[in-house]
Amino acid sequence: MKFKATQIAEILNGTIEGIPDVEVDKLSKIEEAEKGSLTFLANPKYTSFIYKTNASICIVAKDFEPTQNVNTTLIKVDEPYEAFSKLLEYYNQVKLHKSGIEQPIFIDETSTYGTEIYIGAFAYIGKNVKIGNRVKIYPNTYIGDNVVIGDDVVLFSGGKIYSECIIGNQVVIHGGAIIGADGFGFAPNNKGVYKKVPQIGNVIVENNVDVGAGTTIDRATLGSTIIREGVKLDNQIQIAHNVEIGKHTVIAAQTGIAGSTKIGENCIIGGQVGIVGHIQIGNNVKIQAQSGIGRNVKDNEVLQGSPALGYSDYYKSYVHFKNLPELVKKLDSLETKHH
């Protein structure tokens, strides 16, 4: 896809200094850009690169005035980073734009779907499924019976949504993610043999949620596992049955959350965090990577370690952790002198 400077300036409401008809067909970092590339300058540290970049077009701030000759066409905007992000989003929309229904697929006759839809080859859509408008369902996807999907949802290749689950508007589910598999429910009988507890609930994913590749969200035993509005989930996260994650919480890869735990709003949880079941985590909590959470957490706490301590307490203690061998030697020496 090729874009002229005039088209880009129109999208970004910017002004051109240079060649209006110059074309670009790729996006690049300013220090790596080649001819035909579009780049941007937002951080003053990178200003020197604008005088030697091979990019055909560079987005800069309105108040940028070059002190040397530049060989690139400038598009001046209010906020270069924000403008470039907007352009990335626009580029992604154009690149991923698909429409129509490919073959072969299976759609049960009891299911319905809205307008401007895309359904890729080898998709399976079960009974009584309701799909909204402008939904994109990529090839090799599975949607079980009685699923409800809102508007502007993207389900990438290999994604699976099990029966009865509800997906809101503007949700993105990446490849290999599984929504609504059985929760890990087993109970031992009097012989110590584990018997499966039926998992008859569902998963509710509210609006504007992103679910990363390979992430699994288990259905509830009873009721619902709930992912609230605006939550962002990285790749390879495990969310167990009856968990609830509050609005606009962000969770990094390989985190595991055990059953029936409730996480508040606007939390930030690092990678490889382990969280036990049946606890409450408050709002605005920050949990550092590889922490283990085994207790209730109050609003605004910042935690690290396993079992997790308050962030500042952890670092104060860590100074002593590193010095433990030396401290032990000193204690041994004192004990020897004492005896």
TrEMBL record:
Catalytic activity: a UDP-3-O-[(3R)-3-hydroxyacyl]-alpha-D-glucosamine + a (3R)-hydroxyacyl-[ACP] = a UDP-2-N,3-O-bis[(3R)-3-hydroxyacyl]-alpha-D-glucosamine + holo-[ACP] + H(+)
Classification via Gene3D superfamilies: Hexapeptide repeat proteins, MurE/MurF, N-terminal domain
Top-level taxon of origin: Bacteria
Keyword Lipid biosynthesis part of the UniProt annotation: yes
GO molecular function, one term: N-acyltransferase activity
Top-rank EC class of the record's enzyme: transferase
InterPro entries: Hexapep, LpxD, Trimer_LpxA-like_sf, UDP_GlcNAc_AcTrfase_non-rep
UniProt keywords, alphabetically: Acyltransferase, Lipid A biosynthesis, Lipid biosynthesis, Lipid metabolism, Repeat, Transferase
Catalytic residues as annotated in Swiss-Prot or TrEMBL: H241 (proton acceptor)
Any one of the GO CC terms: membrane
Domain UDP-3-O-[3-hydroxymyristoyl] glucosamine N-acyltransferase non-repeat region, chain residue ranges per copy: 21-89
Documented EC number(s): 2.3.1.191
Pathway: Bacterial outer membrane biogenesis; LPS lipid A biosynthesis
GO terms classed as biological process: lipid A biosynthetic process
Keyword Lipid metabolism among record annotations: yes
Pfam families: Hexapep, LpxD
PANTHER family linked: UDP-3-O-ACYLGLUCOSAMINE N-ACYLTRANSFERASE, UDP-3-O-ACYLGLUCOSAMINE N-ACYLTRANSFERASE 1, MITOCHONDRIAL-RELATED
Family as reported in the entry's similarity comment: Belongs to the transferase hexapeptide repeat family. LpxD subfamily.
Record function comment: Catalyzes the N-acylation of UDP-3-O-acylglucosamine using 3-hydroxyacyl-ACP as the acyl donor. Is involved in the biosynthesis of lipid A, a phosphorylated glycolipid that anchors the lipopolysaccharide to the outer membrane of the cell.
Subunit composition and interactions: Homotrimer.
Protein name: UDP-3-O-acylglucosamine N-acyltransferase
Encoding gene (name): lpxD
